[in-house]
Write a structure and sequence with these properties.
By secondary structure, the protein is an alpha/beta fold. The chain contains three helices and six strands; from the N terminus they run βααβαββββ. The strands form two sheets. A three-stranded parallel sheet has the order 1-2-3, covered by helices on one side. A three-stranded parallel sheet has the order 4-6-5, with no helix packed on it. It is globular and about 45 Å long.
């Protein structure tokens, strides 16, 4: 209830790693078939019931932007697609935007600074020059 909206860049859904480092590094980065959205939804429900997370009614009309790249080899596209699927359960689809059209490696994308989009390396900022 303190924030309005959400932005997710190359990330997995709520409770993807389930507090497990191996799951974080495998399931939530490169093996989306191992992400169990049912478990993620149940964890969110328990979080709400425990008063730790906002009630889902507070996020249903929030604007939500999710970015993932088909060219990202660090966080695979299927992981981000699982996040989109998770958010669609709680957020009005008219309030969501999923952008996976920029062929960027694993980095922040800007219009004016950084490596070419194909580079995944320091400073992990890539430019997509807009003319």
């Amino acid at each position: 209830s303190r924030f309005m909206g959400a932005g997710l860049v190359a990330g997995g859904p709520f409770w993807c790693a389930q507090g497990n480092m191996n799951a974080a590094l495998m399931n939530c980065m490169s093996m989306p078939s191992l992400i169990d959205l049912g478990t993620c939804h149940r964890a969110y429900a328990a979080c709400q019931q425990g008063g730790v997370c906002d009630d889902q009614s507070h996020i249903q009309n929030h604007r939500t932007y999710i970015f993932g790249s088909k060219a990202d080899t660090t966080v695979r596209p299927g992981v981000v697609e699982k996040s989109v699927e998770w958010y669609r359960t709680y957020v009005d689809p008219s309030q969501m935007r999923f952008n996976n059209e920029i062929p960027a490696a694993h980095a922040w994308v800007t219009s004016h600074y950084g490596n070419p989009c194909s580079v995944s390396g320091t400073p992990y900022i890539n430019t997509r020059r807009v003319v």
